[in-house]
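Encode chain A's predicted structure.
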Amino acid sequence: MLREAGLKAYLVLIGTRGTFPLIEDFPELVFNHAIACVEIDGRIIFMDPTSETCSFGDLPGGDQGRKTLVFFDDRYEIMETPVFGSAENRVSKEMTVKVEDDESISATREVLTKGISDQGQRYWLKYTKPVKIKEQLEKAVNEITPDASLSKYELPDIENMNEPCRLRMMFTGMDYLKKAGGIRLAPQWGGVDTSIVAKEERKYPVKASLPSEESVETRLILPPSWKAVFIPEDIHEENKWFSMNRQFRLSGSELIYTEKTVTNNEDVTPEDYKKYRALMFDLHRRTRSQAVFETAGK
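Encoded structure for chain A:
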């Protein structure tokens, strides 16, 4: 079909992620999938026509960073598919929460996806019944605050592969902040999952996932009469495995929380595991802090 469209297209055999990698000087049948590539202006672009929600120029995660066998018209060649950078596999989450004097809230939340995350989001939206999508969004806002009511939601045009998926929700609720007398605690935003370092030692490396980026911005608008008692410190961490930047800013009665985490395509070797484990536990402790406010009625 690609050739019928006037493109220089070629068959590609690939062993997807999780299968034995292709070794050039070791003859073995290691392919479990067939994709394609096109040549445009002398540049080879791999594509997976079987992935309906993957846009042109992108690849499913299982196809990235794999040695493949490309069948040109007069020869074959072993070529490696690209691994896209963290900025190409991005999730961006923005939320604004306004707290009224009676401590009810009105909020908006927006999720923007790109790359692998976009493929998954688009697939879910494409093949899930509308009533099930609404039910899932209602569950999502109730995980943010109890007794939440989904007021409105906006879905992206999933057939427009040139634009990333943008999902928007508007909701209301109560008791978003934890109460302790006249003190209110903001939720524990962000954090670090330490389940991957549960073992004290490892004989094998912790395999890296594909590079990815996640950014979060939460704006908490409080009643003007409330006072800030404690604002958590900023966190800046950068190493060969990932980077994390976390910041709280207080502007009048508005608290702005931002966090950006970038993961690299770098395995954790058994020799580095002890250092990595200590780092994860330290970050877990440091990211558990919460902003504290004092109400006018204290």
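Residues 130-144 form the longest helix (15 residues).
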